[in-house]
Amino acid sequence: MSASPEFFYITRPPAAAAVGDLPLLVLLHGYGSDEEDLMGLAPHLDPRFTVISARAPQVLEQGGHAWFDVQFTPFGLVLDHEQARASRRQLEVWLEGLVGAGGVDRGRVFLLGFSQGAVMALGVALHRPELVAGVVFLSGLVAEEMIPKGAGEGLGSLSVLMAHGRQDPLLPIALGRASRALLESLPVRLVYREFEMGHQINEECLEEVRAWLSEALDQG
Predict the structure, then answer these.
(1) What gap in Å lies between CA 220 and CA 212, rounded to an integer?
(2) Which of 54, 107, 136, 174 has the most crowded CB, counting CB atoms within 10 A?
């Protein structure tokens, strides 16, 4: 386990022998979870990755952690965009430090986020595309507030895999499709998939993620 000035995180070294700078996969968990949650995916993903899973900065009274506050109201889901921006900026600085410390292939840095973590991962990539080669966006929500003004420059090389469950009770599939429409307005290389699942990652989705990440590595 390791600590940085901004985030607590855990690391899994690559399971495959490698020489030189290594590809990096950063995992960002959802609301009420922690850094251990998504690390369970690591054994099922490409063994060439160094995998780092970060803990969100906010401690919740009911346990777990969050990147920003969320309220479920009669009028829909309300995100605290100011908190989200603050966490996103911290992640950008932290990611810069990880990449700058050496041993990381700067052209093969990927972020994988689930739910709130997906919001964070995509936010970092849209604001700092030079830091990120690709994003796996799982069961998340794209809001207009996430998209920087004049977005477009530098996004042509950004790859995004967006996946959503058709039975998601927290973020209904209509929100997933609206999120896809917003992202399609940007010059990113988007792959969108829907699965027969709720607010989760089922085996079919995990296989799609594995294949997409491996193909991204193979393409360099």
Answers:
(1) 13
(2) 136
